[in-house]
Design goal:
Helix 1 runs parallel beside helix 4 and helix 2 crosses helix 5. 34% of the residues are buried. This protein is globular. The chain is an alpha+beta fold. The chain is 39% helix and 15% strand. It has a 4-stranded mixed sheet with strand order 3-8-7-6. A two-stranded antiparallel ribbon has the order 1-2.
């Protein structure tokens, strides 16, 4: 619930490994989701230390398009993905982005669906760094806020390219 341009590091919600708040502003209602992301992602990358969740315009637009008009999409083990591999940098910096079906913000079912996707991709030797919550926005994770933000920026810019280049891009 903060404007990214005005984030004050001292106010960031910081939690311990059990999900208990230790400092900063009150954690969001999606903390259960973020806690599940840490647990699932650390099984494939022990250095995972930051989750960023936004409501990025172009990512959400693509998820709306995908849920409004079902069509063939890039998939991995029957999980629809937000985007195909449009650019080399998307492949290198982001990779696969499973599209998780809609759940209300903070719903435990969303956290479980995301954890299952992380586990499924990781077990196949394709660890992921992002998921897209349909109608809500992306969640990305990495070993630092800067690395997570770089992943998010590449994801949003690729979604923007998809929106600009084809009205039918899933």
């Amino acid at each position: 619930d903060a404007c990214l341009g005005f984030l004050d590091p001292a106010r960031l919600a910081k939690l311990d490994t059990q999900g208990q708040q230790v400092s900063g502003d009150q954690a969001s209602k999606t903390i259960a989701l973020h806690t599940r992301i840490y647990a699932a992602a650390r099984a494939f990358d022990a250095h995972t230390a930051c989750v960023i969740h936004t409501h990025s315009t172009h990512c959400v637009a693509l998820s709306l398009r995908a849920t409004a008009t079902p069509q063939p999409q890039t998939t991995f083990e029957a999980t629809p993905e937000l985007l195909p591999a449009l650019t080399p940098y998307f492949v290198m910096k982001v990779g696969h982005v499973p599209l998780i079906g809609y759940h209300r913000p903070g719903a435990p079912a969303a956290a479980e669906a995301v954890a299952r996707a992380i586990e499924r991709y990781g077990a196949q030797g394709t660890p992921i760094r992002a998921v897209m919550l349909a109608r809500l926005g992306p969640n990305v994770w990495h070993d630092s806020p800067a690395a997570a933000m770089a992943t998010l920026e590449e994801l949003e810019e690729t979604a923007r390219l998809a929106c600009l280049t084809s009205p039918d891009t899933p």
